[in-house]
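Hi R.,

Here's the input for the adenosine-2'-5'-diphosphate complex you asked about:
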Amino acid sequence: MTGKATTVKLSGGGRKMPYVGLGTYEVKGEEVGVALRAALECGYRHVDTAASYQNEEAIGDVLQEWLTSGKVTREELFITTKLPFIGTRAGDVAKFLQKSLQKLRVSYVDLYLIHSPVGFMGQHDEDHKPVDSEGNRVVDPNTDLESTWRAMEDQVECGRAHTIGISNFNSVQINRIMKGCRIPPANLQVEAQIYHQQKDLKAFCHKLGISFCAYSPLGAPYLTNGTGDRPPPLKHPRVTSIATRLKRTPAQVLLRFLIQLDMIVIPKSSNPDRIRENFQVFDFELSQEDMSSLEALDCGKEGRIVKLEESRRHHEYPFDIPF
Ligand code: A2P
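And here is the predicted structure with adenosine-2'-5'-diphosphate in place:
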């Protein structure tokens, strides 16, 4: 990505996905309402949620407020939500998407993602983190990604989702979806940040026409010890020195870096000042030299922060192969 483009054209119909979206993982209730209002006020039009974040209703309230007041049109918004881990079965896709639409109070989402290749067995539709008597996550031994994908395609055909995609899938799983699909995935959402830059997976996706969205682009600082011995990305001396020289913040440098690598970013924040800061990344560019110095911080697979350990016992656990 070069220049000041603010959106990425998606495959299949050419819908445009904004490079910056508001991440909302585990931000709930009034907190997510404050965050989304601040985001919309300063120009965000892309919001990322998931059934398992349990904040779709609160997000729906704000969307409704903005849509009915005419401050924004539905066509201007880009709303992503995700099929929960407990819904990763062909027979459950329509039901869970309909529930999400009802909570978000919209008739379609712009992008519907399979949240993970790993399926869980919930006791009911809100049982997002089912555990057995020993405290282990109850995984679904029958997850069949190809048939789940066919049900995702049905959602596009009946208008509930304008585009569909996948999250936390590896290249082998993506290849399986690509083989024989009627509608290829428009987007892959995975962790990407300076220590885990996902170069191979991103190149693989771009070759297939799949756009690439980075979650935890700031390095998920709320995950204590996530980076091991390495400084948190927001505090890395190379990041802070570039930020000081360019009169930007470390977060802006980290986000701009990923955008210039042609990644969509969904930084999460519930603080209105930081939400505004994270959107001001289209009026400057990192030089090739700065890009190279940040690219050199990549630790490959070792740099992964979000490991989805609770999914490890499932036959589709995605993070055991190089990419
Ligand atoms: P807060 O909600 O208090 O702003 P990631 O998107 O990589 O998972 O990171 C999200 C975390 O980073 C949140 O804990 C958020 O805290 C913090 N954060 C978001 N934006 C910024 C920023 N501009 N500067 C510093 N920390 C930020």
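One thing worth noting: The beta strands are 7-9, 16-18, 22-23, 46-48, 78-83, 109-114, 161-167, 187-191, 211-215, 264-265.

Cheers,
M.
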